[in-house]
Design goal:
Number of helices: 8
Helix content: 25-40%
Strand order of the largest sheet: 2-1-5-3-4
Oligomer: single chain
Order of helices and strands: EEHEEEEEHHHHHHH
Largest sheet: 5 strands, mixed
């Protein structure tokens, strides 16, 4: 397939503001968008900057806007986002500071992630038999969806509330909090709920469903946020 790829470029050393540059590309229909970016970088312009790692949809590092929608470049196929002779448009994620080209500063995102204590908190003595803290399959299933998050930021940077105010903790952090709030081994639900109950917490969510649509792991993000809201409203974890 021959098509054009339109990429938003920005080099802080020479550019006053971001701008689009277009490249003519020849790629296979089953190539991924990440392959197209490699073609541009290796054959057209070596200064193109992007973030990537595993290239298999696990690390989440190559999240970007593809034709106006958040997705992982390593998962989206050329045939699904461009037709022969058409144009593919690639932009960096919205709502986070732009570093260069398709690379954004993830620190504000991870600051919110750290704020909900994304780790198991349990002060009880470990089992004397040396085993792990056991949990029933039903108890594990209660928070299973949240464990699939790969911290790509696709959900948070698709959220209008986050665009409006970057202090909003964001969908990804709430999903991570959900994972521990509903874990019956954890003992820090109260602290997490205190973070999510403030003015920039879970009730900043306006149920736009952008986050659920953007998630490359098919996590029902809006549903999990709703469950956290319910706990905040009722004071009960069920």
């Amino acid at each position: 397939m021959k098509f054009n790829v339109k990429i938003k470029r920005y080099n802080p050393e020479i550019d006053a503001k971001p701008h689009f540059e277009t490249y003519a590309v020849d790629a296979e229909p089953n190539d991924r968008v990440l392959d197209v970016l490699h073609i541009v970088k290796w054959q057209h312009d070596g200064t193109l900057t992007l973030r990537r790692s595993c290239a298999h949809g696990i690390c989440g590092s190559d999240a970007m806007r593809i034709n106006g929608r958040n997705a992982l470049a390593c998962k989206v196929l050329v045939k699904d986002c461009v037709v022969e002779g058409g144009t593919m448009q690639l932009e960096p994620l919205l709502g986070l500071p732009l570093i260069k080209d398709l690379t954004v500063d993830m620190e504000p995102f991870f600051k919110h992630y750290r704020s909900i204590q994304p780790f198991l908190v349990n002060g009880d003595p470990l089992p004397t038999d040396g085993r792990e803290r056991l949990q029933s399959p039903e108890a594990r299933e209660r928070f299973d969806q949240g464990t699939k998050c790969i911290l790509c930021a696709a959900c948070t940077t698709s959220c209008p509330s986050f665009w409006a105010n970057g202090e909003y903790v964001g969908p990804a952090a709430i999903v991570q909090a959900h994972r521990f709030i509903f874990d019956d081994r954890d003992q820090a639900a109260e602290e997490r709920l205190a973070v999510l109950g403030d003015q920039f917490g879970a009730f900043r969510c306006r149920t736009a469903f952008n986050c659920t649509e953007a998630c490359p792991r098919e996590i029902p993000v809006t549903q999990l946020i709703g469950e956290v809201k319910q706990v905040l409203s009722s004071g009960r974890i069920e």
